[in-house]
Amino acid sequence: RLAPTARLNPHRSLLGTGNYDVNVIMAALHSLGLAALWWDKRRSLERLALDRIVGFILNVPSPLSLGFLALPLRRHHWLAVRQHRGTYYNLDSKLPAPVAIGGAAELRAFLRDFLSRGLCEVFLVVSRAVEEAGDWLSPE
Prior knowledge:
alpha+beta, Cathepsin B, Chain A, 3 helices
């Protein structure tokens, strides 16, 4: 729906490898009554109102390889983090199965680790009501 008549889709990797831009993710979430909010890295992760956040989407650097040969190139990869029964899970499609991160403190450490590596973006997935009210951020 984002570029139905485009010969080359501007929302997708030129190589067709599936690294869609954030507009595709935002449109998909919007169709589910959700929103993606960009996280400003200058803010403290302690300010996240985790009980108001559905999940997280990270865009992280990923090494490129051809079989066993590692190339000196990096591309970006999307991964999701979601909480289930009090435990946060890394739902990266490159992993063989979801990996438990832990509770709130471990989640913040996980996010801090990715953000400290640079070239990483974090998006908060929230309901549209939370987006409109701004309830995803705790007061300072």
